[in-house]
Every structure is written in C-alpha cells, then in structure tokens.
Amino acid sequence: MKKYSIGIDLGGTKILTALINRENGEVTGLVKKKTKKDKGPQNIERKLIDGISELIETLNIDLSNISSIGIGSAGQIDRKNGIIIGAPNLDCFDFNIKEILTEKFSLPVFLGNDVETAAIAEHRFGAGKNFDDFVCIFVGTGVGSCIIKNNNIIYGHTGTAGEIGHTIVDLNGRPCACGAHGCLEAYASRSAIETRLEGALRKGRYSCIMEYLEEGKSITSSMIKKSIDRNDELVLQCVNEASEYLSGGIASIINFINPELIVLGGGLIDAVDYFYQETIKKAKLKSLPVPSKEIKFKKAKLGDYSGVIGAAFLEDRVL
Questions:
Q1: Which of 7, 103, 105, 252 shows the smallest number of beta carbons within 10 Å?
Q2: pTM here?
Q3: Selecting from 3.40.50.300, 3.30.420.40, 3.30.590.10, 3.40.190.10, what CATH number does the domain 131-300 have?
Q4: Is the model's pLDDT at 318 over the cut of 60?
Q5: Which residues lie below 8 Å from residue 7, measured CB to CB, with a gap of 6+?
C-alpha cells in the first residue's frame, strides 16, 4: 500500500489541500485557498489544481508515493462518476471534478460529500472512534450531516442521505441556496446568523460586532464568539434563534434515527461553545424522553483537519 493520499476539503469559504499519511491519519502538509468570492467551476478548478501542485512542489514528493486524491465537497455529489451535481455555495453544477483531476495528475480521484469525509475521519481517529452508530453534523456555511450505522455510511437510494440542512422547518419560510424555502440551513448555519445580523445592522440596530467588521469581509465565527463574550444583545438574539432551529433538527434526528452519539463540528461549533452547549440542552428537551436520556454528544475532535483526513480515505469506501 502506498503511504500517502491527498485529501481535499472543498467548502464554501476555503479549499484545504493536504498530504495525509495513510498509516496514522497524520497531516504532513497543508495548503489553503479561499473560495469566498472566486466561485464557479473555472475558479474552483484553478484553485484545486493550484493547491495540489503547490502541495506536491512544497513537500517535494513523488506522485508514485501517492495512492489517490480524495475530495470532500459541499453539495450533492455523484460518487460513482465523480461529479458535483449541485453545490450552490460553490456555484458549481454538473461539475466533473474527477475527470479534470485524473487527467491533470494521473491519479485515481474519489469524491464524497464534505460532511461524509469529516465523519470518516472522526470515525477513524476522532470523536466517533469506538462508536459504530452515530450521526455527524457540521455547522458552517451550510448545515450538513452524515449517518453511520453498524460502521457503514448510510447513503440512501440516490446517495443524498443526511441532508439535514435541507429538511423543511418552515413551509413558507426563508429562501435557501438550494432553491427551496424554509430549509434548516437558512435558519441555523453561520451564514444564516450572518444574514440576520447584517439585516439588523442595516436597520440601525447596534452591536459590538461592528467593531470587528472589515469592509468587504464576512462576519466570522470568531467575531460572533467575541460579541457573545461581551454579552451583545443582538448577536445573542441571532445565535439563540439559530440554536432553537438547529436543536429542533437534532431532536428530529434523535427521534427518527435513534443514534447512540451525535458528533457536532464545523466552524461555528468549534468557535462558539455557547452555541454548542445551548443546542445540546435544547435538543435533549425537544426529543422524546427515552432516547433523550441515552443520547451522547461530542464535539468533533479533528477541527479543520477532519475533512482532509477523511477525504484521503475515500478510496477505502468507494461504492
């Protein structure tokens, strides 16, 4: 077995490209590219190729030592053909990422959902280790999840199982990037909190978060945390609203799937412990009494590295 794989975490705000030691999951090199504004297939293709090329050149590693390239992408994906079917947060649709990277680097390329890859990593090396029945939920630009049952990922008939962010929480609710209305993602993601805060600020509401804002840049999870630490009324209002919706979605999972463990991760969870703790507390109160008593919660352990580590092992789980 070749010692290394390249793992890529393709998200709505950044692309992380890493060389992963397949023996222990260690990240031996990392390249980061921002995707916040430069989206669409041409920009994403360029950033992916640049990231892989930079990683190989910086580490001076021979391609013969690399087993595969694995990519965890936001959105709905076709695993078999390596196509991003639809990723609104990346502005990519019917994007054949496998074909492009295979031709460029002459390596096997495997594609998975970004939360799927995070769940693989957490199962092998992180919070889900020694658990064979859990749901992994990541909250960031969007809200995604992956279901693991009997040590296997539940993909569903069309391979799109686990789209908790697109469960409907309000039939006539806010528009979502997927084209529907009332999706959980439109209420509980960091992007949703950002949208609510920006709308309130435009209407003249005061928040200390204004002290951290920079022209043309987004509201970050770190800014939200700093504002909560200062007991900012507006930020707490928006975060509490997101927590109410997310906890309702998690309670539905507890009642419907009845997992042993729920692993929560993503930038908002990592940075804002208040949001994590409030969501857990509310989810237990909203779920049925028997599963509520038994359910365990853990924070994802591997942080920003979970996506790239899990992507490097996609070749072991190919359908």
A1: 103
A2: 0.89
A3: 3.30.420.40
A4: no
A5: 17, 18, 19, 20, 70, 71, 72, 117, 307, 308, 309, 310, 311, 312, 313
